Amino acid sequence: QVQLQQSGPGLVKPSQTLSLTCAISGDSVSSNSATWNWIRQSPSRGLEWLGRTYYRSKWYNDYEPSVESRITINPDTSKNQFSLQLHSVRPDDTAVYYCARGRSTMIRGLNTPCGFDIWGQGRMVTVSS
Amino acid sequence: DIVMTQSPDSLAVSLGERATINCKSSQSVLYSSNNKNYLAWYQQKPGQPPNLLIYWASTRESGVPDRFSGSGSGTDFTLTISSLQAEDVAVYYCQQYYSTPMYPFGQGTKLEIK
């Protein structure tokens, strides 16, 4: 049974860096059939996909353009986890942050994504001085 | 930017009746190489993360009751609950995962009991 366990501070000061970690059990961050994603949710923005990391013979990252200049997502193979860093945070970065697995399956030799099937429990992060 | 628009924003349906939620993408999410629509539906209950119900627009995730079904292709999609149960009260979201690096969600549809 795959589970994702999130950790990190719930309060960050403006202009500082928000850091969260998502520990994976039951799967591998190096899996060739998964992507590892960060999503946030706030009343003003709704659900917002932020970015992902994944391994396909080498490591790749994709980031949502609106946060691309401030975000870093890194895998940690030694601890089987991945992390989110959001730099220079502002009050409107206040949200519940989720990590999630993007599952995929091979269809006729093509790695075909199936949506986000496993989610972390969520972490409320408030940006305030 | 790709925009996902759901309708209605809220819906009240009697127990045992059909509930229908629509989702429209500003661009097609049909991947021609495998004829799959990269569109998912999620259910979110208060205090919980979203839960995957449907992927490829119409494939039910394992363990999801068969009263939930998805349909549509290209840019227009529908989630149907054939016979509403009390435990189906939730907010429902569609999401496209076709266009890297943007995987937008719809704004959500709140489903209540009439």
How would you characterize this protein structure?
- The complex is a heterodimer of chains A (129) and B (114).
- By secondary structure, chain A is mainly beta.
- Helices cover 0% and strands 61% of the residues of chain A.
- Chain A is built from no helices and 11 strands.
- In chain A, 37% of the residues are buried.
- The model of chain A has no long low-confidence stretch (mean pLDDT 96).
- With 114 residues, chain B is mainly β.
- The radius of gyration of chain B is 13 Å and the shape is globular.
- The relative contact order of chain B is 0.34.
- At the A-B interface, strand 5, strand 9 and strand 10 of A face strand 7 of B.
The stretches of 5 or more residues of chain A where confidence is low (pLDDT under 50) are: none
Strand order of the largest sheet of chain B: 2-12-11-6-7-8
**How many H/I helical runs of chain B?**
0
Helical content of chain A (DSSP H or I, runs of 4+): under 10%
Query: Over the alpha carbons, how many angstroms does the gyration radius of chain A reach?
Result: 15 Å
What is the typical, i.e. mean, pLDDT of chain A? Answer: 96
Task: Provide mean pLDDT of chain B, rounded.
Answer: 96
Sketch the major β-sheet of chain B. Answer: 6 strands, mixed
Task: Give the overall shape of chain A.
Answer: globular
Main β-sheet of chain A, in a few words? 7 strands, mixed
Radius of gyration of chain B: 13 Å
By DSSP, the count of extended strands of chain B is 12
Q: Pick out the low-confidence regions of chain B.
A: none
- How many individual β-strands of chain A? 11
How many angstroms does the end-to-end distance of chain B come to? 36 Å
What is the beta-strand fraction of chain A? over 45%
SS summary, helix count of chain A: 0
Which structural class matches the secondary elements of chain A? mainly beta
